[in-house]
Amino acid sequence: VKALKNTGLKLNPSFFPRDKNHPNTHIYAKEFDFFMVHLPLAALNFKNEEIQTLKPHQSQEQISAKIQSIKNDFKDLKFINNHTGSLFTSDANAMRKLFLALDNFDLIFVDSLTTNSSKVRTVARDFNKTYIKRDIFLDNYDDLNYIKKQIKKAVNLAKKNGFAIAIAHPKKNTFKALMQSKDVLNEVKLVYLSEIYGTY
Predict the structure, then answer these.
(1) 135-141: which pairs have CB atoms within 8 A and are 24 or more residues apart?
(2) End-to-end CA distance of the chain
(3) Is the pLDDT of residue 200 over 50?
(4) Residue 152's pLDDT is what?
(5) 97: helix, coil or strand?
(6) I need a surface site. Which of 43, 75, 137, 169 has the fewest CB within 10 A?
(7) Residue 53 DSSP symbol
(8) pLDDT tens, residue by residue, 8-32
(9) By three-state DSSP, how is residue 121 classified?
(10) Do 54 and 87 meet the contact criterion of CB atoms below 8 Å apart?
(11) Mean pLDDT, to the nearest integer, of 94-100?
């Protein structure tokens, strides 16, 4: 939170749901005008899985209960994006259960697009929802110059398409790259996701 605020940039923080490993995320979220929740979904191959990661085989009741607990903790929440999720998001039935739960709590899903096999676009269409996805990852490689190049790519993409959604992680090199790329970032307007997708 401190590092993000110290950038002085208008960024969209995304917090893990509250659990024993992340007990205060719902408190940290209150320090921002806008935030999302970073929902752990099952991956095809990921060793450091979060303790309450949602699995495709879980029932509608289990998935809905998880979303309700998140909504209870994060009162002003509107947008949820996935942490990992290559297995879950590529399972249309699993995503239907998740979309039904999100719909009941007036929440909007943002596809972090952790797999090319994502079924989120199809399910969003079935629910008559706008498909929202990330356009670029900034820090797949924890290298300062690489991240700065990705930031430039994101800016160019925004200029071309009208806007771009870039995802990054709270790594030292990422914050450093953002700080060193302010001239590049000033070529576009940094906005909250809610400014693109509805007024929430």
Answers:
(1) 135/161, 135/164, 135/165, 135/166, 136/164, 136/165, 136/166, 136/167, 137/166, 137/167, 137/168, 138/166, 138/167, 138/168, 138/174, 138/177, 139/168, 139/169, 139/171, 139/173, 139/174, 139/177
(2) 22
(3) no
(4) 98
(5) helix
(6) 75
(7) -
(8) 999 999 999 999 999 999 999 999 9
(9) helix
(10) no
(11) 98
116 token code pair: 């090319």
Give residue-wise pLDDT tens across range 119-153.
999 999 999 999 999 999 999 999 999 999 999 99
> What order do you get walking across the sheet with 36-41 strand by strand?
14-15, 36-41, 79-84, 108-111, 132-133
- Give residue-wise pLDDT tens across range 27-42: 999 999 999 999 999 9
Residue 127 CB partners (closer than 8 Å, separation 6+): 99, 100, 103
* Residue 160 phi, psi (nearest 5): -75, -45
Q: What is the pTM of this model?
A: 0.96
Q: Residue 146: CB partners within 8 Å, gap ≥ 6? A: 139
CB 67 within 8 A of CB 105: yes
DSSP string covering 165-199: -EE----HHHHHHHHHTHHHHTTS----HHHHS--
